[in-house]
Amino acid sequence: MTASAPASALQPALLRASRLSKSFGGVRAVHDISLEVPAGAVFAVIGPNGAGKSTLLNLLSGIFRPDTGTVAFGGADLTDVPAHRRVRHGIARTFQKIRLFRQLSAHENVVAGCHIHCAIPAWQYVVHGRAFARNHARCHDKATRLLAFMGLGARAHVAAGALAYGERRMLEIARALATAPRLLMLDEPAAGLNAGEVEALIDRLQTLRRDGLTILVVEHNMDLVMTIADRVLVIDYGQHLFEGPPAAVQAHPGVIAAYLGEAPP
Amino acid sequence: MSSADATAPRRSRSAAYLLALLAIVVLPYILTGSYWRTNLIVCALNVMLAIGLDFVLGYAGQLNLGQSAFYGIGAYASTLLMMRLGLPFWIAFAGAVALAGLAGIVLSLFAMRLRGHYLAIASLGFAVITYQVLLNWISLTQGPLGIYAIPPPPALALPGLPTIDFHDLAHLFHLVAAFALLSYFVLDQLVRSPIGETLAAIREDEVSAAALGINCAAWKVFAFGVGSAVAGAAGGFYAGFVGTLVPDAFFITESFTILAMVVVGGMGTLIGPVAGAILLTVLPELLRGIGDLRLVVYGAALTLVVLFMPGGLLQAARLAIPQRKRPEPAQ
Prior knowledge:
Strand order of the largest sheet of chain A: 6-7-8-3-9-10
Oligomer: heterodimer
Distance between the termini of chain A: 46 Å
Helix content of chain A: 25-40%
Number of helices of chain B: 14
Order of helices and strands of chain A: EEEHEEHEHHHEHEHEEHH
Number of helices of chain A: 9
Radius of gyration of chain A: 19 Å
Number of strands of chain B: 0
Number of domains of chain A: 2
CATH topology of the largest domain in chain A: Rossmann fold
Structural class of chain B: mainly alpha
Strand content of chain B: under 5%
CATH class of the largest domain in chain A: Alpha Beta
CATH topology of chain B: ABC transporter involved in vitamin B12 uptake, BtuC
Helix content of chain B: over 70%
Shape of chain A: globular
CATH superfamily of the largest domain in chain A: P-loop containing nucleotide triphosphate hydrolases
Structural class of chain A: alpha/beta
CATH architecture of chain B: Orthogonal Bundle
Shape of chain B: globular
């Protein structure tokens, strides 16, 4: 399946968040942020450190409940749906601080992500029959394919905790893809990667979007954002600063001020 | 085909189960005399308690110190259902397993928001409360006076075979050990299924488990329910085996003994706690000659394992025996 048409206003939004706010104590981490991610688009969220990007992602993935505002996905209201149920709707994510199952192998990490789509009769968990074997083979093949795609084919049986930093980032993406998402949310996927690894990551994300996956990425690496994003949302101090195509963001004086610390005009 | 590749380990596992069954049949005729046969039965009971705890602790990663309570609930429930309500043994036994499992589910619901040390304290509190209830609800349990003359399971008359009388300790061992093996089989099958990876994911990181669609709360309830039901089954056999029930048999120290069996054996594997249970049942018996010093040996062994061999006996065995080349799973 190819969805090569650029995201346009005509396409219905896959993810729609409106007027999200979240405070921790007296700190307004996210304040009145709305966004719409069209199906098939790559949507980037950027902003200085502490701008509330990760909090926004946690609100979208259900780790935090918003104080006010709503989250809708594919037409369903997910505002009160817990994180683990959102995955079944098709939302997968990675974490800024990598969170892998460190003692499990790379392969097992990915297989653990396959199980939400596992439908074998309950008794076969104890007496492993034909459906069990089919499911086992399906998960195994899928994990092998995803690891190969993320460049980890040769590292499948290494414990996740023993992988190099860049490999761990790739493994987290492979694991998220195992849940067969419609929307993949990446929290700083390029952080800590060298230039070559970033290039490979960009290639893979391009492949995923060509296959029809919608991607929301929080990122500092401007090469990555400018190369793959269709639309960029800039936030600062938890608030909406600007939203537009990548080229417009680069030219926007408020964005430059937020990053370079000049007094806003 | 991956199914063809899967048959080789499955065949060797079947062979291991057959071997275990054979060992169960012949052991009470090698280790004869009521002293050794009694110890064999205690081993089998402890194996059930240890693998039940390991399912919760080693796989789901929940530090549960309530295993003595589930053991006690199983023992008292089966006895009271039998002696007060006049139910046949096997129905009382099933009731005891169900009640212990239910107690585990209730504890896990209350302890859902707790982890690590906090869960340990909450589950220990549950064990203390259960002990106090057994001790003080005298109209039901007869408290410290105890319940006496509890009969062993009724004789089993299988067609074409001589009647199996469980007053004979050898046969009682066959029965309890067969149930221990069955429990092992069920738990082993569960941890080899997607449930095994699901529980491991929860153990390793609950936030990312949830990010993969895993309902951590529900699976913890499941693990507690299964682990305590197995302990309840051990309790159901304990009463008829000892013939007497007093609350002191289910004091909280029992929880720590079971924990030691799991840790010494190697948690997160099933065969490790089996070895740990057998070792920590037999070792104190062998050390009876040195009197109370055996407690020192016991404590020192546990400390050394935790300090130097966190993977337990199983890790030691892996170090000692050169690893056979493990075949790579099929591509």
